[in-house]
Amino acid sequence: QKKSKKSSETLTFKRPEGMHREVYALLYSDKKDAPPLLPSDTTQGYRTVKAKLGSKKVRPWKWMPFTNPARKDGAMFYHWRRAAEEGKDYPFARFNKTVQVPVYSEQEYQMYLHDDAWTKAETDHLFDLARRFDLRFVVIHDRYDHQQFKKRSVEDLKERYYHICAKLANIRAAPGTDLKIPVFDAGHERRRKEQLERLYNRTPEQVAEEEYLIQELRKIETRKKEREKRTQDLQKLITAADTTTEQRRAERKAPKKKLPQKKETEKPAVPETAGIKFPDFKSAGVTLRSQRMKLPSSVGQKKIKALEQMLMELGVDLNPMPTEEIVQMFNELRSDLVLLYELKQAFANCEYELQMLRHRYEALAKAGSIGPLGAEGTHPDGQAGLGIEEVKGDAKDQIIDVVGAPLTPNSVRRKV
């Protein structure tokens, strides 16, 4: 009994004080073995499989000679190769691609390929170099015999070669076949190289001037787009004003003529820029009429202040009693006033641009390119003044439009 007690006491281990249970569990396994000194991996999960080296014989390799079919000199080389591949062709010979240069006979040359500027010996020399150097015309031009034959450029050599190829393709083609004949434009290639040379030989001053002109051109295009946008906005405002006027006239005549209900519902579409577009309250529940008098967020602060000022000048209360009729009339009044405010701004912009064009016209008249302009848009001799497009066309060499008009000419606050 004493021995059994001693053995039970030695098998039990007590966790040291201050050590966490998880850390203590890492020290010993369930069998109470001692902790391993080296890391071990006994799991059968995802891991790289070790190479299984058996006792089989490796494939024999042999030092053997070989020749390259791409070479014409019959040179012999040696390398290590598997014994099973002995006698096979060199595998990299298939990457040797050659250009098929056409061959012509004496009769074909005399009948179709004769040219006064080229002799047959010179043409034969060109085609021989084309076969040797695989149509690398820069190398062909370098190896060309300029002492025996006439001095030629790369474009001349290309033009002669492709002209002969096209002739031979037309002669040898079967009737009715669709041919893809190569065409070389020597004149275009010469102009391209000349332009590239000029571009490369530019001075730093010329490069800076070109960049400056490109920037000015972008500015002119930007201002042109802005003018077109302002013109479109002005046209929308005019259309909106005309549509609003027609609607009011139709509403006044409606009770007299007793128009059918279908025509009353079919109202002409008004653009979004026409005055103020108030939101429709179609949600279920109780709503206040004063909410319908609230200006939408699309109206800017500048328009709101101008609208309040116009209402004060007209003696209209800014917060009237929100009955049904008053709400409708008040919203229509504010919409018309905002439309009037936008039309006045557009009119001021057009007047400013007209004044600017008049000053430019006077500057051109002083320069002597055109005659002076009278008070009513006519010359002193009675002829009508030139249009803006004619002015720009006559004086485009003297003045370039690089200074644009500001977007808001009425920088000083005006009274509406």
Automatic annotation (TrEMBL):
Swiss-Prot/TrEMBL GO biological process terms: chromatin remodeling; DNA repair; methylation; negative regulation of transcription by RNA polymerase II
Keyword tags: Chromatin regulator, Methyltransferase, Nucleus, Transcription, Transcription regulation, Transferase
Domain DNA methyltransferase 1-associated: 209-367
Subcellular location: Nucleus
InterPro entries to which the protein is assigned, alphabetical: DAMP1_SANT-like, DMAP1, Swc4/Dmap1
Compositional bias segments (type: Basic and acidic residues): 224-233
A GO term for molecular function: methyltransferase activity
Keyword Amino-acid biosynthesis: no
GO cellular component labels: NuA4 histone acetyltransferase complex; Swr1 complex
Domain DAMP1 SANT/Myb-like, residue spans: 90-168
Any single Pfam family the record assigns to this protein: SANT_DAMP1_like
Region (Disordered): 224-270
Domain of life: Eukaryota
PANTHER family for the chain: DNA METHYLTRANSFERASE 1-ASSOCIATED PROTEIN 1, DNA METHYLTRANSFERASE 1-ASSOCIATED PROTEIN 1 FAMILY MEMBER
Protein name from the UniProt record: DNA methyltransferase 1-associated protein 1
Organism, scientific name: Eurypyga helias
UniProt lineage: Eukaryota, Metazoa, Chordata, Craniata, Vertebrata
